[in-house]
Each structure stands twice: as C-alpha cells, then as structure tokens.
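Need Ribosomal RNA small subunit methyltransferase E's 3D structure for a figure. Predict it.
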Amino acid sequence: MTAPVFVVERMPTGPEFVLDGPEGRHAVSVRRLQAGEDVVLTDGLGHWAEGVVHAAEGKDRLTVALRGGVQEEPEPAPRITVVQALPKGDRGELAVETMTETGVDAIVPWQAGRCITQWKGDRGAKALAKWRATAREAGKQSRRVRFPEVAEAATTKQVAALLADADFAGVLHEDRDHDSTPLATAGLPAVGSIVLVVGPEGGVSPQELAAFAEAGARPYRLGRSVLRTSTAGTAATALLLGRTGRWG
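Structure prediction for Ribosomal RNA small subunit methyltransferase E:
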C-alpha cells in the first residue's frame, strides 16, 4: 500500500520535520501511525518529500525523518480544467471529490443560468470553501502531491473568456438532436490546456451555447446515456486522461 500523504504549509528543509496541528492529529490519533512507517509530505503544489516516522508523541505530534530532499512533480500536459455548473445539495462536493481522485487539474464553479443552486454572499463563500476543502482531502486520499485548483465562481462571460484561451475547448451537451461530436473522437492537443464545460441538470441554454461557440467551444457528447452533472465531469476527465496518454 502506498504511503499516506500529509499536507504542510512549507516544505521541510532539514533532516527531520515535526508534523503537528490538524495534520499531526490525523496522523497520530486517526491513522495511529507508529515509528518505522512511511509517509509523504506535500504542499499540494507539486512539491513533496518521503519520510519515515521517527516518533509519535501525544495526540497530535509526529516526528518524521526525511529520506532524500524535496522533489517536484512536473506540471501535467495537457492541463485539464472542468468548468462545473453548480449542482444541487452536496452533489457539488461529490463532483469535486471524484474529479480530484480521477486526476483533474483545475475546477471552475459556474453559475449557469439554469442552476437551481445560487452562490451569493456568505452562502457562496461557504460553498466555495467546502469545494476547496473537498479537493484538498480528496487529493490527500488519492495520494496526489499536486492538488487541483478550485477557482472562484465564474459567470458565463468569464467562462467564455477561459474557453477562448484554451488549446481545446468543448461543452458537454446531451441533446441527441444537437450537432455534437463524440468526445472519444475529438482531436486533442498533446500540450497546452483543455477546458471542458459541464452544464447544469437543466442543460446549457441556447444563449450560453452561442456564447461558448463564439469563444471557439464545440459541443461534445460522452455516449448514449445521459450522466448527471455531478458525474459527467469525472467521466469526461477519465476519458481525456486516457486519450492524452496521461493514464499511460
């Protein structure tokens, strides 16, 4: 089994590191790590270091002896961003969790016109914080050392600008009568950025499709079945990772 991952604010610089606070408590009181067990420390930004537990003290203090220096995982290519329309209830956290576990690089919450959920004021700030915390925890659970960026909620105009700058831009569209191409056969770049929009349960509106088309994003479909907005991004991410060779 691979070593558990713990997040640190700053990467260690010496031969030993003391993991304390919430991460230390999780390591000592929840994971119950003991001397001699392997761990990985990361800042979630691609920097990481391997270590072995030297001692566990109290309820929240773990002394780690480092093996080797700090390493850096290269940025992935192509970079995959999913623009996720806001789902209902806690299905947004589900989408973030599974996309993170699958390997997405960035997630942009989108306040689509047909979204039932509205991120406004304190409610929006709390929801965004939940998405970011979910990405962090899912990144640790899936042994990632470069966690996905979860951006501020975007408007349709902002999403269009993001699509215009991408090397590949697409919109998942479930309308069988619409002129959409299978994502499985789309021409994808080997480097650069891929940005894919996942619409809300009510679908992407004609006005939004037009704005995205003007930005250079074509409609694509995954298959015959219609996935929920909270699962479509994960399925699309898996497909793109396989087709670009990142799952090689």
